[in-house]
Amino acid sequence: MGDSTTDFDVIVVGAGPSGSTTAYELAKAGMSVLILEKEKFPRYKPCGGGLSLKLERILSVNIKDVIESTITGSYFSYQQKDGLYLWSDRPIAHMVMRDKFDTLLVSEAVKAGAAFRDRVKVNGITESSSGYDVISDEESFHGRYVIGADGVNGVVRRFIRPREIRTMAASIEAEIPVEKDLIDKHNNYVHIDFGTIPYGYAWVFPKNGVLSAGIAGFRGVVKQPKKYFDQFIKAHSSISEVSNYKYKGYPIPLFRNHQSLTKGGVLLTGDAGNLVDPFFGEGIYYAIRSGQLASSVVIDARNKGYDTLSGYDGLLDSELYPEFKAAQKISQFVYTFPKTWFDILTDKPELAEKYYNVLRGESSYREFLKELKGIAGSLMKTALKSGFLQLFS
């Protein structure tokens, strides 16, 4: 390790959506900020790339130029044998490629005044009398505060929670090149299939020149996820004949329960803090929102001379965790009884619009859970037979 040391108010480790958002907000507030990223930017990131529309309510950056498609409906199926289109008269979500989206957010943070260094692998963090030293192979960087936005296997997460037991989803995703007319056909809806993979779902999302296809299992690490991925691809009429694509597997760290994501002047955002929707595995909105909450706590700590960022835990507990807890219960029902869920959707298609309102930020998972409880009550006999009523208790 070299002997050079650079001082900043805040060092952000990881240049994904949560790290870039945190850096952007802090730089706007006049703080000196350094973003460290181990990969060379722009970099490919395996991800479905779905941005729920509620993101527009909180994001000040204009993302128009990186939107691949805008979604106004869904095609839901059960084991790809039955299906129904459930459309809305308003947008639900946007689709992006993560290399373009993440690069945009980093560039906005730099414009706001943040420094950015890619291809810097952080190996450790040590506490000093005036903050923290973030150590890489070649250099060390000093910051009063450190933000861990370095993902599921990040060094900062291990600094705060070295022995944490986490709930992980197993996922595989591929960007599959297809003809333009096929993209046009799929352009305004996503395909969501229940029952293809145990305790999870499969998807096809439309983007420019490709269909993004994947599977995710939400109960532990599903054995042989590639087998389920191959089965889904081969049975899908739009992509079954395509062979020139590469797939990537990746873990999704799901919210499990209330936990502290701070240690002194260090905190975790996004995937590093398991801040992922436990129903559909959405991470981008919560990455960005947690970055905004983190930046507000850091700014307040700086202004008041605090060395600790513990106020961040309270913000998560009041805003994000209640939603995650409701989403957990919905997930337990849907993925334990996927056929029952599909039958309910078929019988009550208006439920789709209620869920779309959650994605738009016009409703919440807590309100959506109440809807499902009402349905469980009205279908008491079925609920008692299938055993899903107690999941809502």
Can you walk through the features of this model?
Helix 8 (321-336) runs parallel beside helix 11. The strands form three sheets. Strands 1, 2, 8, 9, 10, 11, 17 and 18 form an eight-stranded mixed beta sheet that branches. The chain has 393 residues and is an alpha/beta fold. It contains twelve helices and 18 strands. The longest helix is centred in the C-terminal third of the chain and has 21 residues, at 284-304. Helices cover 35% and strands 27% of the residues. The model has no long low-confidence stretch (mean pLDDT 89). The chain has helices at 17-28, 98-111, 155-160, 180-186, 225-235, 284-304, 311-319, 321-336, 338-347, 350-360, 365-378, 380-386, and strands spanning 5-13, 33-36, 50-52, 67-71, 73-78, 82-87, 93-96, 115-117, 122-128, 131-136, 140-148, 167-177, 189-194, 200-207, 210-217, 247-254, 262-263, 266-268. Strand 5 and strand 6 form a beta hairpin.
Summarize it.
By secondary structure, the protein is α/β, with parallel strands linked by helices. The protein is 35% helix and 27% strand.
SSE layout and pairings?
Layout: E1 5-13, H1 17-28, E2 33-36, E3 50-52, E4 67-71, E5 73-78, E6 82-87, E7 93-96, H2 98-111, E8 115-117, E9 122-128, E10 131-136, E11 140-148, H3 155-160, E12 167-177, H4 180-186, E13 189-194, E14 200-207, E15 210-217, H5 225-235, E16 247-254, E17 262-263, E18 266-268, H6 284-304, H7 311-319, H8 321-336, H9 338-347, H10 350-360, H11 365-378, H12 380-386
Parallel strand pairs: 1-2, 1-11, 2-8, 5-13, 11-18
Antiparallel strand pairs: 3-7, 4-7, 5-6, 9-10, 10-11, 12-15, 12-16, 13-14, 14-15, 17-18
Helix pairs in contact: 1-2, 1-6, 6-7, 8-9, 8-11
